[in-house]
Write a structure and sequence with these properties.
Histidine-containing Protein, Chain: A; four-stranded mixed sheet; disordered N terminus; 5 helices
Length: 181
């Protein structure tokens, strides 16, 4: 009797698990863009060598993912594509990530920009994150700030701080202000 009840309880539990799994698979399989976009974002943020000197972006169109942005090392571009290809529901990956030119001067500018921006008192709180949200992209002496900050004052402060670094030809401030919750 106990054995029959145990087998029956196990069968019911397995059926419930299978039903939940089927519902999740159906949700993903039906082209749930929000789920797929979240998975792509998660995979990109978890790349081991992704840093604040890299900028990764993406577009999801059905089962096709287009990777965009700039990276300092070619293997980051390859790893990003590999990570996204492994996501369930992704059939095609168009890797348009630009590998920034290797330059000793650009590396010096990156370090100087990092110190200038993240050492400023009102911006220091951003440096405590695993991947700080203000990304510093340097290509041939031209600096672009990408990412998200809490308010307009932080955006403007980061832009002003970036302009104080020597040997920089131009600064483009593409920082976005996080929407109020």
């Amino acid at each position: 009797m106990k054995r029959t009840i145990l087998v029956l309880a196990l069968a019911i539990a397995l059926g419930a698990v299978q039903t939940v799994s089927s519902a999740q698979a159906g949700q993903r399989g039906s082209g749930n863009q929000a789920w797929l976009m979240n998975e792509v974002r998660s995979q990109l943020v978890l790349l081991p060598y992704y840093s604040l000197f890299d900028n990764l972006a993406y577009k999801v169109e059905g089962s096709k993912v287009t990777l965009l942005g700039q990276v300092t090392q070619p293997y980051i571009k390859d790893e990003a594509a590999k990570a996204v290809k492994g996501i369930e529901g992704v059939e095609t990956v168009d890797n348009q990530i630009q590998v920034l030119p290797l330059s000793r001067m650009d590396n010096q500018i990156r370090r100087a920009e990092f110190r200038s921006i993240y050492s400023f008192p009102s911006l220091q709180r951003y440096s405590n994150m695993a991947v700080p949200p203000i990304h510093i992209i340097v290509a041939n002496g031209h600096v672009t700030l990408e990412g998200v900050v809490d308010n307009e004052a932080d955006k403007n402060t980061a832009g002003i701080r970036a302009k104080t670094v020597s040997n920089v030809f131009s600064v483009t401030n593409n920082l976005r202000v996080q929407k109020e919750r």
